[in-house]
Recover the amino acids of this structure.
């Protein structure tokens, strides 16, 4: 997602679009493999909010900074686990 935000801020629309499509693709694959309702619920909410922020009218009023903060926790956990 960082690529999407960086591309968006730099005005590189094509890079930004491709990064967004890849993010949705990865979310969809993760959603299809979700084994618990709680995970499925969180993943579908993230997908909806991302699409709203980057494609639609941003009804949730999210910002690039709020997305960076949201995904930071996952990045931190992945690094702590050695991935």
């Amino acid at each position: 997602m960082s690529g999407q935000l960086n591309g968006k801020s730099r005005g590189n629309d094509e890079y930004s679009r491709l990064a967004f499509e890849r993010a949705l693709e990865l979310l969809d694959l993760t959603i299809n493999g979700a084994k618990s309702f709680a995970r499925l619920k969180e993943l579908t909410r993230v997908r909806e909010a991302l699409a709203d922020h980057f494609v639609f009218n941003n009804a949730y009023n999210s910002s690039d900074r709020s997305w960076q903060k949201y995904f930071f926790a996952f990045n931190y956990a992945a690094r702590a686990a050695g991935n």
Observations:
- Residues 2-80 form one domain.
- Residues 51 and 57 are 9 Å apart (CA to CA).
